[in-house]
């Protein structure tokens, strides 16, 4: 299972969490990565953890201001990027442009979507993976795998119906190893989570709990 920890703009220490993700990754068969804010990418990548951006824009080098260029994210040490997170929504054409920009820069891609219908559209753009995250469950601590298991299974079917090479993650409210196992049982190949680690008093303990049953 892939466990991708999005730090959003939570007031955690990104280096402390990055080191925790790196150390727990070394002790488990699961694949762990962390997605800090753009301004923290370089320092986080220097810890040796697998590092992801939270967003890249559908742009090239040139006359753009205040945007995130995929090449700069890769130069900072990122291995991949989220695109179209529910808190950073894009138009379909811009999701496509961001996926192309990320590919150009050699970044792995996870395109987020709110529901199975959007997952099908996202998979058609050819990212490495898609992630279904019902917005109403984000940050609630109620896991999507428990509150809405059909949405995960339907997302897996929707992606497989479009492109069997696109893997499916799920997210929203995931905070325990039991939630991760339930996500895997529903067909997801990984989870995307934030508050369960970024807001934890002890991120290492939270991460160990997440991967313990894997
Ligand atoms: O949006 C999310 C991950 O990108 C999910 O957030 P929570 O894990 O806080 O519900």
From TrEMBL:
Main localization (coarse): cytoplasm
Catalytic activity: D-glyceraldehyde 3-phosphate = dihydroxyacetone phosphate
GO cellular component: cytoplasm
Annotated catalytic residues: 85 (electrophile), 133 (proton acceptor)
Domain of life: Archaea
Organism whose genome encodes this protein: Natronococcus occultus SP4
Keyword Cytoplasm included in the entry's annotation: yes
Localization per record: Cytoplasm
GO molecular function, one term: triose-phosphate isomerase activity
Family: Belongs to the triosephosphate isomerase family.
Pathway assigned in UniProt: Carbohydrate biosynthesis; gluconeogenesis; Carbohydrate degradation; glycolysis; D-glyceraldehyde 3-phosphate from glycerone phosphate: step 1/1
Functional note: Involved in the gluconeogenesis. Catalyzes stereospecifically the conversion of dihydroxyacetone phosphate (DHAP) to D-glyceraldehyde-3-phosphate (G3P).
Protein name, as recorded: Triosephosphate isomerase
GO BP annotations, alphabetical order: gluconeogenesis; glycolytic process
Keyword Phosphoprotein: no
Gene it is expressed from: tpiA
Keyword vocabulary terms for this entry: Cytoplasm, Gluconeogenesis, Glycolysis, Isomerase
Subunit structure: Homotetramer; dimer of dimers.
Residue positions binding substrate: 6-8, 138, 173, 194-195
EC number in record: 5.3.1.1
One Pfam family here: TIM
């Amino acid at each position: 299972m892939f466990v991708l920890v999005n730090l959003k703009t939570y007031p955690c220490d990104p280096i402390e969490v990055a080191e925790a993700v790196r150390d727990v990754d070394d002790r488990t068969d699961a694949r762990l990565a962390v997605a800090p804010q753009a301004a923290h990418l370089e320092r986080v990548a220097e810890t040796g953890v697998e590092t992801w951006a939270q967003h890249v824009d559908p742009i090239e080098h040139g006359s753009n201001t205040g945007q995130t260029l995929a090449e700069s994210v890769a130069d900072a040490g990122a291995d991949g990027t989220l695109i179209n997170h529910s808190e950073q929504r894009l138009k379909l054409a811009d999701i496509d442009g961001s996926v192309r920009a990320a590919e150009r820069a050699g970044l792995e891609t996870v395109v987020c979507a709110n529901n199975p219908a959007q997952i099908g559209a996202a998979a058609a753009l050819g990212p490495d993976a898609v992630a279904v995250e019902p917005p109403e469950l984000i940050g609630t601590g109620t896991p999507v795998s428990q509150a809405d298991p059909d949405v995960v299974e339907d997302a897996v079917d929707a992606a497989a119906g479009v492109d069997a090479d696109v893997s499916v993650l799920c997210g929203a409210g995931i905070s325990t190893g039991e939630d991760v196992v339930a996500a895997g049982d529903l067909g997801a190949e990984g989870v995307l989570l934030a508050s369960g680690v970024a807001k934890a008093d002890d991120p290492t303990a939270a991460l160990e709990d997440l991967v313990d049953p894997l």
